[in-house]
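Risk register update: the risk of archive-format incompatibility is retired. Evidence:
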Amino acid sequence: MNEQRQALLFLCVANSARSQMAEGLARMLFGDRASIQSAGSEPSTVNPYAVEVMRELGVDLGAHRSKSVSTIDPSTVDTVITLCAEEVCPAFLGAATRLHWPVRDPASKDPTIGRDEMLARFRAARDEIRAKLVRFGRQRGLLDTTMDAATEGDLRDVRALVGAAGLPVDDLAGQFPEGFVVVRDAGAIVATAGLESHGGVGLLRSVAVATSHRARGLGHALVRERLEAAARRGLSSVYLLTTTAEAFFREVGFAVVPRSSAPEALQKSPEFAAICPSSAICMVADLQTLRPFGSKPVTQSKGDKTS
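Archived output:
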């Protein structure tokens, strides 16, 4: 085993959903800094819902096959991560470090659960695993990116990044840096998102990720963090306008609403009043009801530490 690379093995029972998604996500996030495997104690087939929700992030599980933990050479693994929640997790022989990340199984044989709900369950499990991997990667030195509050000196770079994504920048300085967070990689800003406040509701804007860093889950992480920031501020809901990313924002909890339904204070904001075209889709996330499957509720507390 190459001692320069960390060697990870993800385990669950069937090696059909959680461990497969963990393998795909880890490969996406960590690249060649780690060798990645997954297996199960009772391998079956890769769940098509897992394939579908991973494809949304640009990760193809189509060629993956479920495999038995008995086929894994213990000498090729230094960290084993089990993902079972309700079930008994597979045993793994060897001297590897063992971690347990219980994630509720999104799969179900209940015929009353429709396609949309199943996709929501798999997306929530996927995003929970991804959040755990990001924390793990930072602890292990597998990720070089950091997310922090924007500063006054970041305006030029944020403007360039947002503009390159085809998003409006004319009014960017209006509430900058307040409400903005940035992701840095080796000191360079590679992603950003902004949250404006207008009369007790929020406006999510300028969610942009550099081309070199897409398909790593940074957009989802930024939106989730800004929603949590909105809850900490005591905002009741967060709106946005989009012309191209409706599907992405649906994934993270937003729903389409009539543009005319937005509160008056928001209608007077530059984005609503002048900048975004009338064809832009209006969406909202209600922070009181945003409860993705398998995730903790967004809780409110005073103060916004990131802005």
